[in-house]
Design brief:
Elements lengths: L2 H10 L4 H8 L3 H8 L7 H11 L9 H5 L3 H16 L11 H22 L1
Protein name: Transcriptional regulator
Length: 120
């Protein structure tokens, strides 16, 4: 598991390390060590982390998955943003910061993955 992936996932839910630790029933120091790559979680803990964030254990090693660099996901996000603008939910495209755009891409990708898994 890459520590930066866990940190991005945790940040996406606006959780502190201690809040995430509480959710997973592990220590805050464990989360800190995972995020700094000083310790690797057990398979059981990795599964719990993946389940909590609605990703696969394999995704925990894949920073590209988390960063939303997948072109298909970005195309979906572009369409979503167009719809948000058309419906006046977003009225000023220049006021959407890059972090919000990335969060939208990330959220859409997670939902797509979830729907695909549900259909399987």
């Amino acid at each position: 598991m890459k520590g930066e992936v866990l940190k991005k996932l945790r940040d996406s839910k606006h959780l502190t390390q201690n809040q995430l630790a509480k959710e997973l029933n592990i220590s805050g120091s464990s989360i800190r060590m995972y995020e700094t790559n000083k310790r690797t979680p057990t398979l059981e803990t990795a599964k719990a982390i993946a389940e909590f964030f609605n990703v696969t254990v394999e995704d925990l090693d894949d920073i590209d998955c988390i960063e939303g660099n997948d072109k298909a996901s970005l195309a979906v996000v572009d369409k979503l943003i167009d719809k948000l603008i058309e419906s006046n939910i977003i009225t000023d495209v220049n006021n959407i910061d890059p972090d919000t755009e990335e969060l939208i891409a990330y959220a859409v990708k997670l939902q797509i993955d979830k729907k695909i898994k549900e259909k399987s």
